[in-house]
Amino acid sequence: MNVFVSGGSRGIGRAIALRFARDGAARQEQTRVAIGYFRSDGAAEKTAEELRTLGAEPTLVRGNISSERVLEEVAALGPLDALVHNAASGVSVAALEASGKHWDWTMNTNARALLQLAQVAAPQMADGSSIVAISSLGAQRVLDNYTLVGTSKAALEALVRYLAVELAPRIRVNAVSGGVVDTEALDHFPNREEMLAAGRANPVGRMVTADDIASAVAFLCSKEADMIRGQTLIVDGGFSLLVGATNTRS
């Protein structure tokens, strides 16, 4: 199995990369897992070592996910069985405070990069392969200071639907939208503790974990999901079903 996970060195991306490695080991098949990352060399090397321990062959792809150099490196990986776009970035400001630079950076990283990755990877991908994008509840809900990221995630989910139809004869394309997940990404939010409390207040009564998201991705990349196309699978313990759940970012 040959896999690429953008934003794969930490958090949800790391959990997804490791899940592919574990599943490959369980099936006793050779697994190559390439992870894209922006700056964190130490985290990337640590994840690569974890992948090796699980029997997978890691490849590190460093740089801006939407840059031509990184896209060329992804194309050079050869035919992928699974492409997961997890890398995300953005600026948390109110809509009227957002600049053009903020908009371009957020949209390019979160949405446009999926299109670019599909353009370089899909022509080589075999029948039955999968593309999965990682979205968030902010794509469908209005969350505080989440205008740019939420809009980019909405664009990401729309792009998933279009790609799913265009690539349907050969490739499954879907998205996974998680609730509040306790990763390093939350450290950038001033209301981190409030978000964690809200995340634990879902009907299940526990936080969504990175492994929960990885399990959903693994399912969508399996043959059992063959007739699931262009869908966004919500993994939030029922959080988004509750009245008032729109007040917390994810």
Low-confidence stretches: none
The assigned structural class equals alpha/beta
How many helices?
A: 7
Note the gap between the termini: 31 Å
Q: What is the 3D form?
A: globular
Q: In which order are the strands of the major sheet placed?
A: 3-2-1-4-5-6-7
Tell me, rounded to a whole number, the average pLDDT.
92
Radius of gyration: 17 Å
- Count the strands? 7
Gist?
The protein has 250 residues and is of the alpha/beta class. Helices cover 40% and strands 16% of the residues.
Descriptive account of the structure:
- The longest helix has 22 residues, at 100-121.
- β4 (82-85), α4 and β5 (129-136) form a beta-alpha-beta unit.
- The protein contains seven helices and seven strands, in the order βαβαβαβαβαβααβ.
- It is globular.
- The protein has 250 residues and is an alpha/beta fold.
Q: What labels would you give this structure?
A:
7 helices; 250 residues; globular; alpha/beta; seven-stranded parallel β-sheet
